[in-house]
UniProtKB/TrEMBL annotation:
Protein name as catalogued: PTS glucose transporter subunit IIA
NCBIfam families per the UniProt record, alphabetical: PTBA
Residue span(s) of domain PTS EIIA type-1: 20-126
Protein keywords: Kinase, Phosphotransferase system, Sugar transport, Transferase, Transport
Pfam families reported for this sequence: PTS_EIIA_1 (PF00358)
Lineage: Bacteria, Bacillati, Actinomycetota, Actinomycetes, Pseudonocardiales
Organism expressing this protein natively: Pseudonocardia tropica
Superkingdom of origin organism: Bacteria
UniProt xrefs under PANTHER family: PTS SYSTEM GLUCOSE-SPECIFIC EIIA COMPONENT (PTHR45008:SF1)
Record flagged with keyword Kinase: yes
Keyword Cell membrane among UniProt keywords: no
Compartment(s) of residence: Cytoplasm
């Protein structure tokens, strides 16, 4: 089994807590989500699994787990509209990363100032909706286990 860790600190809200139907209805795959604390102004976003950076955008990335599926981390909702403003990437597409390695940094205050939610979905791509079944209603620190594959 592969441990998938929280990319950011916050409350685990699950798909139902994501203000976007693509993630809420798990159209890309089963998953969960973390809501950063309201007073957090910045977050270093960690790789949820060890693997290869298969896709990288300022606001989102996919890590293909060693011997496993792609894990999408999307930082905020509709944050693509920021055009990369408020985000700094620390890796490149094709890089090998360890679980818990910094992938990007986000200015959460800028995300909120733009009227966007900082909610951070973590999705097992192409898995059935409801397949992750991660517990919700608790707080995690970045690097804590969210669920197992």
């Amino acid at each position: 089994m592969t441990s998938v860790v929280a990319p950011v600190d916050g409350a685990v809200v699950g798909p139902a807590g994501v203000p976007d139907p693509v993630f809420r209805d798990e159209l890309l795959g089963g998953g969960t989500a973390v809501e950063p604390p309201a007073d957090a102004t910045e977050a270093v976003v960690l790789a949820p699994v060890a693997g290869t950076v298969a896709a990288l955008h300022p606001h989102a990335f996919v890590i293909t787990a060693d011997g496993g599926p792609g894990i999408l981390v999307h930082v905020g909702i509709d944050t693509v509209s920021l055009g990369g403003a408020g985000f700094t990437t620390h890796v490149a597409k094709g890089d090998a990363v360890e679980r818990g390695a910094p992938v990007l940094t986000v200015d959460l205050a800028a995300v909120r100032a733009a009227g966007l939610a900082p909610t951070c979905p973590v999705v097992v791509l192409d898995s059935p909706a409801g397949s992750v079944g991660a517990p919700t209603g608790h707080t995690v620190r970045a690097g804590d286990e969210l669920f197992r594959l």
